[in-house]
Design a protein that fits this description.
By secondary structure, the chain is of the alpha/beta class. The chain contains 14 helices and nine strands. Helix 1 packs parallel to helix 4. About 40% of the residues are buried.
Amino acid sequence: MHLFGSLPENLTVVETARRQQVPVVLSTIAWFSLAGYWAEPRPLVRRLAACAGLAVRSIWPRISSWRRKLYQGVDLVLPNSQAEAEQLVRYFGVPMRRIHVVPNGADPRFGTADPEPFARQVGGPGFVLCVGRIEPRKNQRALLRALHGSGMRVVLLGGVVPGHEAYLAECRRVADERVQFVGPLEHDDPRLASAYAGCGCLALCSWYETPGLAALEAGMSGAPLVLPLGGSAREYFGPHAEYVRATDLRGIRRAVTEALRRGRSADLAEHVAGSFSWAAAARVTLEAYRRVF
């Protein structure tokens, strides 16, 4: 059995599977960040509790919780990066022998898309593209503030997360006249691949990404990347991207300017296609299955 996500309801499934002697692997899809916890739009008491809990876990990872029981109960955990694997060891005491890193992937179709359809929709190619759900963790407001008055065209692709409508309203308030809110596109909509092919760069200024499917899909097309320091993006892209802090507005503006100047990269496209296709991810996943059969 292969489960996806660090969800409390998965614990019951794991316990049932183990009673039936069914091997279980779990794609954790998790990231733990003090800065990310503090930035969440929650009451101060809850943010303090989350930060304190993570700090305590870094000292005493054997503290019981549903999450620790979940990670300890499966045969293998499959994080998306070595950085995520190290967090599972540090905060939950997962033995490294029960960790098998499986990278995220992107579909090769993102490397061969036609830029024209989406470019016609937004007034031409060369725009700054931001793809993702509109919510505080994705930090679109900082990107819009950083680029306000720069003259750069910015396109936001994504729908608002329910409960964060006020955040969308704030993003609209700080956006200048060069910003377009396009809304969400289905993953198989040809316009999504066209957007990556036609953009001047992809800018994700989130509190963290692991590394973000949008980054891989844009990278497959060779689009210049501006990515967060938080998370595992650097592990995936190394020198092929610019990296920014979520709170550094001047740094975000400099990074976007540099990414636009750098232009598209065949080396980046080759790097992503060679190491982070879904076929490559499938091969590594199969290795994990064979470890538990």
